[in-house]
From TrEMBL:
InterPro entries: Phasin. Residues 11-106 form the Phasin domain. This is Phasin domain-containing protein.
Amino acid sequence: MKTSAVNLEVMKEFGVAGFEAARSLGELNLRTWEKLVEKQTETFGLFVDAGIEMVKATTEVKEAKELVNAEMAVAKQFGENLVVKGREALQVTNDARDDYRSWAEQGVEIFTKQVNKSVKAA
């Protein structure tokens, strides 16, 4: 039978392990959030840049055909850049998925070790 000191030590170890897991999850959440906000900001920048180019084209071009061609070029470039940013955001989410999976697997491993250690102490 375990003594009170052993029981308290086991409880302490579970508490510390739980706190560390929560802390690392918080850090993972923050890193993921920062990366996603960065991609969102970059994507918003694409909209702004395309808008500026459209305004520039409408003020500089004299003929309607040239204006249409300039608008089509801006739209094409914007679409291509948007696809690139979408792929980058998808990569961020894939990386986050892998990080969360790794975090969960590590948590299960630590918990299993703690339980085994606790059972052996009994």
